[in-house]
Design goal:
SH3 type barrels; Aminopeptidase; 3 domains; six-stranded mixed beta sheet; five-stranded antiparallel beta sheet; 7 helices; 24% helix
C-alpha cells in the first residue's frame, strides 16, 4: 500500500497548460467527451499521436490535444492513497528487486497490455496458470506469461486479501451494478470539474472485475457514457433475478467543502442487514468517515424487487477526497469492502 501521499517517478509526465481542456475517449474531436482538466495539473503519459496525447485519467485512458500540454521526462509527481504505511515499507513493496514465479489463485484474471483497467486484454489467465513476476509498482504487477509481458492487479499477490474460492458464497451469485448517471446526466461535478458519472462507471468496472474473479455473475446497467432511464435499471435487476442490486454514486456539498465520508441507503426493511454488512465492509477497507446507514426513497430502490442498496462513496466537493477517489488503490479498497460486506451478508 502507498502512503497518504507519495512521490513516484515516471518516464513522462503531461502538464496541462490551460483551464477547461477537454478530455476525450479517443484521439479526435469525434470521440466522446469524458471530462476536463485544468492548468497546472499533471497526469501520467500513456500514448500519443501527432495531434493528441493519452493520459491516465480517473484510472482509465483519456485523450487531450497536444497543443495545450507540455510533455516532460523524468518528472516526479505526487499521487494519493489511503494507507498509513511507513515509507520504508512502501519502498520495499513497490520495488521488487528479483523475479519469482507465481501461480494464479483465482478462476479468471485479465492480463492487460498496460497498467490500467481500460487497456487491451492480452490473455485471460485461469487458476493454476504460472506467471513470472517482473516488477511491482503501486497497484499493478508486470508479469511474463508464455513469453507475453503484461500487467495484473497487485492485490492478487497480497496474502491478507486472498480468498478461499471454494468457500466464498459469491460463486454463481447474480449481482447487478448500476453506475449512476451517464451521458448528458453528468451527476455531481467535482472540485476539479470531473463528473460523477465517470467516477461511478470506473468504480462499477473495478467491482465487476473483482466479483467475476470470485465466480459471481455480474451485469452492469450501463457500460458506456450514455444516459439510461432509472426505471429500466431497476427492472434489469428484476429481470436477472439479482441476488443484490447496487447503485453506485458519489456525493457533493459544494457549500460544505470539508464534508467527507460514505453513506449507504436502503428502502425496504428487509434490506437493512445487507446495508449494514456492506457499509461496515467499506469502512473497514477504506477507513472513510462513517456517515451512516439510512433509508432512502430513491426511484431505483423503489422499482427494484430485489435486495437493493444505493451507495454514496465519497464527496467530490472535497478536494482531498476527490484525489483519493481517483487512486486505483482506493478503488480496489472500495471494491474489496463491498465484497467483504456481500460475503458476510450471504454467510448470514
Amino acid at each position: 500500500m502507498l502512503t497518504l501521499s507519495q512521490s513516484i517517478s515516471f518516464a513522462k509526465v503531461v502538464s496541462i497548460d490551460v483551464d477547461e481542456l477537454r478530455v476525450r475517449t479517443g484521439p479526435s474531436t469525434a470521440h466522446e467527451l469524458i471530462g476536463h482538466v485544468n492548468q497546472g495539473e499533471q497526469y501520467t503519459f500513456l500514448d500519443e499521436t501527432d495531434e493528441w496525447v493519452a493520459i491516465d485519467y480517473n484510472g482509465g485512458t483519456g485523450w487531450v490535444s497536444r497543443d495545450y500540454v507540455t510533455i516532460t521526462d523524468d518528472q516526479t509527481v505526487t499521487i494519493p492513497s489511503n494507507s498509513d504505511t511507513t515509507s520504508d515499507d512502501t519502498n520495499n513493496q513497490n520495488n521488487i528487486s528479483s523475479t519469482f514465479d507465481f501461480k494464479i489463485p483465482v478462476d479468471k484474471l485479465h492480463l492487460r497490455e498496460a497498467a490500467t483497467t481500460e487497456s487491451e486484454i492480452l490473455s485471460i489467465l485461469t487458476k493454476g496458470d504460472s506467471v513470472v513476476v517482473l516488477e511491482q509498482s503501486n497497484d499493478w504487477v508486470k508479469v511474463n506469461f508464455q513469453d507475453t509481458e503484461g500487467y495484473i492487479p497487485s492485490w492478487i499477490l497480497n496474502e491478507q486479501i486472498k480468498i478461499n474460492l471454494n468457500q466464498t458464497p459469491l460463486r454463481n451469485k447474480v449481482i447487478v451494478i448500476d453506475p449512476g448517471h451517464g451521458g448528458y446526466d453528468v451527476g455531481a461535478i467535482s472540485v476539479h470539474n470531473n463528473y460523477e458519472k465517470n467516477f461511478a462507471l470506473n468504480t462499477a468496472k473495478h467491482l465487476q472485475d473483482q466479483l467475476e474473479l470470485l465466480g459471481a455473475k455480474v451485469h452492469l446497467t450501463r457500460s458506456d457514457d450514455y444516459y439510461y432511464a432509472l426505471t429500466p435499471r431497476a427492472i434489469l435487476a428484476n429481470y436477472h433475478g439479482a441476488d443484490v442490486f447496487l447503485s453506485i454514486h458519489y456525493n457533493s456539498e459544494p457549500q460544505y467543502p470539508s464534508a467527507n465520508g460514505i453513506n449507504t441507503y436502503y428502502r425496504k426493511s428487509a434490506d437493512l442487514a445487507l446495508a449494514e454488512f456492506v457499509h461496515q465492509g467499506i469502512l473497514e477497507t477504506t477507513k472513510a468517515n462513517d456517515r451512516g446507514v439510512l433509508t432512502g426513497d430513491y426511484l431505483v430502490l423503489r422499482n427494484s424487487k430485489r435486495p437493493s442498496l444505493l451507495l454514496e462513496l465519497g464527496f467530490l466537493s472535497n478536494e482531498s477526497e476527490e484525489m483519493l477517489i481517483q487512486s486505483p488503490g482506493y478503488q480496489d479498497d472500495i471494491s474489496r469492502g463491498i465484497i467483504i460486506g456481500l460475503e458476510n451478508y450471504f454467510y448470514n
